[in-house]
Every structure is written in C-alpha cells, then in structure tokens.
Amino acid sequence: MTLESTLAHGIPGDVSTGSSPLRCRSCGSAGLSVFYEMKGVPVHSCLLLNEQAEAVNFPKRNIALGFCESCGFIQNTIFDPAMLRYSSAYEEQQSFSPRFNSFAEALCQDLIQRYDLRNKKVVEIGCGKGDFLVLLCELGKNHGIGIDPSYISERVGSENVEFVQDFYDERYANLTGDLICCRHTLEHIPDTYEFMQTVRRSVGDRRDCTVFFEVPDVGRVLREIAFWDIYYEHCSYFTLGSLARLFRKTDFDVIRLAKEFDDQYLILDARPGTGTSRLKAEEDLDELRRDVDFFATNYSKRLGKWRERIDQIRHKKQRAAIWGSGSKCVSFLSTLGITDEIGMIVDINPHRHGRFLAGSGKLISSPEALREYKPDVVIAMNPIYCEEIGRDLKRMGLAPELSAV
To answer: Tell me: the pLDDT tens digits for 89-106?
Structure first.
C-alpha cells in the first residue's frame, strides 16, 4: 500500500471500536488499550483557511489513542484517512526561525560527515517546501529529489534539486539514492508497516543506502502531558523503541537511535539487512507503559490547571497572545475550548499571515501586530523558541509575561 492510497482509501482490516479487538497497525498485534479520547478535533491543523466562517466550520473528527503492549506503538484507533487533503495549502514551513535553522544545519552537517554525503544522491520522502533537502544538497554538493504534495515551486528551489508535487508511492520506487530521508512524515501515515515495506522494497539490497527518519517523541508528550502535541493529522506516535521495532520488522538494520531538538524529536538511521540487530535505546517498553499510565492518570489534572490559567487571564482582563500558529496552537485552543480569552495569534511565517486557524477561526497576524496590541501575556507554543521570542519582543519595546506550554 502506498502513502496516497493509505490516506485516500483507508486500511484493509482496520481497527474497530466494536466487539473485535483493536489491532496494531505497526506490528499487527491485537488488543490495543485506549487511554486518551478527544472529541471534535479539526482534521487539519496546518491547512490554513482564507475565510473565518470556513475555518470555524472546518470538518472535525474524534481521537482515541490506543497503546500496543507488544511493540509500544500508539495510534489513533478511529482515524479516518479519507478526511485529509494534503496540498499546497498545507503550511508547515519552519525555516523562518533562526533556532530551527541552526538545528537543521547541524543535522545536515552531521549526516554529511557521518555518511560521506558529498556529490551523492539524496531522496526525501515528504520534503514539505524543500528547505532541508536544499540545505543538505548545498552543503554537501549533492543532487536531490524531493516528493511532497504540499511543495510550492515558487517557494524554495535549487539547480541541484528536483521536486515532485505528489504523494510517495511505488511509482517512485526507482528514486533510490545514497540517502533516503523522511522527516516528520511517518507520524501522518496510518498504516506504518505497509508504508515501510514500500520504502524497503525501494531500497532493495543496496546495503550502501542509508535511510534517515525523524519523528516526534511521544514519550515526552506522555511525561509532560503535552496534550497540545496530540492532533488529528498525527495518527501514529513513536518512541525510540517502537520506531526501531517497526524498522526491524521491515528488514532494516537500525544503526543509530537518538533524540534531538531538546529531546522533542527522534532520529533513526538504518540500512537494509535482516532486522536482527538491537540497540540498547530500543529497550523502553516498561518505561513506556509507565508513561502511558501516568498520562492517563494525570491528564484531567493537567487540563484543569491550564483552564485555571486561562480563567485568570479572563478575570484579570489581560491582553493575551499566542506565539506560534501551528498544530500545537490548534490543538491547544480546541482542547481547552478557548475563544476570546486569547486576543491574538502571531507567527513569524509570513505565509500564515492573514489566514484563519481551523476550528477556532482565529486570525493569524505578524508578530509586529503586537506593537499595537501591547499584550500583558504571551504564551509560546514551544519552549525551545522562548529565547528567540524574548529577543523579538524586546526589539519591539514590549515586556509582557512570557511563558511556554
């Protein structure tokens, strides 16, 4: 099964909430236990809308996260792939942040050094707007091919990189490079096992081909009870262990497992093999079971504290703004049912300005709009950007209370 058909047509033998046991889409085991449920979630959080009414009435569905005791994989057991429509209207670009760009460049340099990626061929599955692939090719003088339905030709380009505005599937199996890269795409794939089988068939027996994957770390989400990091587009959630087990099950030998970006992201390097090799970082099932239990036990309390915080803003009549209009923001607003308590949403990505958020219908503004708004409180949707945000606020002559989720 391909990415496109997976998103468009659903999964044969998919999980059910009826009498049949829930089945893991990563390892095939039956008996998943649901530990988190949320109703009325916008089906897209990075698909921006031009009209407020359209944004408010954007389609919504439910989430029911199930945990697989066998492999540790976590999935939305009632995910409906037919609801999604990835296109050029999908705005996920992060390269307007100096902090993120520093991370991306360091990651590129490490891959180039680690695998001698100089004058080589790189294929990126789910390349988004192409920033990372272009950087990897420019730094290593490599040739790249990027595949993504949301790519916009006018946005990012390079004479050394070709882009295909499409979903990755068997039609592109011939696009095998010295490195196959896939960043922040696998968490959007419902049938992860079938998808990785497609990638494995593409690589074949080329043992000199390295695959590099990057996904969010659900372990951090569980331990921090970061409910804003759970949203409909992310139907699949991984720890280092569950990610490695998926790759080994599809006959990859995992050669590196690590956490990056303040331990928010997982990275994995692998090569075709027998899938028998194990790394110490993979042995995390017992810890993960505790994390799932901790999240389920303390979620209501965490939600209650944030509702108290929002109520304080209302009672004190403080002018509050959220910095960061991505998926975290959409989930934060919808989960807490926030309406007029937050008066402004800002983002440094200029392609988001003047558009509306799915669900809440809130307008996205440039940070410069804060000069006139003069916020008392600014909530950063990712703590890793607080220093960067603080500098921007100071430059604008503003000194609000700055906190992060």
So the answer is: 889 999 999 999 999 999
